Amino acid sequence: MPANWWLQKRSYFLFIVRETTCVFVGGYAIFLLVLATRRDDPQSFSEWLHSPLLNALQIMALPFLLYHTITWINLTPQVLVLWRGEDRVSPTLIAAAHHAMWVVGSVVIFWIAYQYG
Q: Which of 50, 58, 59, 96 has CA atoms 20 to 30 A from the CA of 66?
């Protein structure tokens, strides 16, 4: 197989982009966990959160996180096949329910962060 096989079709390219974003998302999550577990100085953690470098990193991470999340939720109906009696539940309904729960979860997290932040 040639090294540029993933450039041959749009679906292959989007697959590779999605897989690449998962590496970035994982690295970003590890970075935030390490940052959050620093117990040497809570003031230092607060300074890091407001630093221009971390703000730039979060702005760069946002499109990767959004793309990864949206494509993952859109794949859910292929993995989660639900049946109601002998009728299959609409894949669109399954994806829409997951998108709605993502929005609800995000609103709850923003509300908690706003209340305690």
A: 50
In the chain, the amino acid numbered 11 is S
Residue 68: which residues within 8 A CB-CB, separation 6 or more?
A: 18, 21, 22, 25
Q: What is the pTM of this model?
A: 0.75
In degrees, rounded to 5, the angle at the alpha carbon of residue 19 between the alpha carbons of residues 18 and 25 is 85
Tokens of 2: 């040639």
Domain CATH number, residue 96: 1.20.1300.10
Q: Are 44 and 38 in contact (CB under 8 A)?
A: yes
Convert the pLDDT of each residue in 58-99 to its tens digit. 888 889 889 989 998 999 999 999 999 999 999 999 999 999
Which H or E run includes 55?
helix 52-79
